[in-house]
Amino acid sequence: MSSYAEFSDSVSRLTILKELDRQVDNRANTTILEMVLEQFGQPSTTDYVRNQLRWLEQNARAVTIEEVGTVLVAELTQTGKDHVDRKIALEGVRRPRLGE
Fold this sequence. Notes:
The chain is of the alpha+beta class. It contains four helices and three strands; from the N terminus they run αβααββα. β2 and β3 form a beta hairpin.
């Protein structure tokens, strides 16, 4: 994977975590997350979002995933919240800027 692709993925992962943090119940489905990534100019196919959610679950333990019908529903974990709040830094996920 090229360094640009790695950077792009890390930004997408942060965008996903920040969106989950914005939700009242810290949950969102793949359709919503796909639209959010599109708004920020990030790759946004269903497969891409699913792959990023699986990566966040397996490699960073930043989300949990539940399959509901044809969509995945992701929920932010405390680890994911700690990254968004800049309490920890997860490798492979862009670090939020101060004040974000």
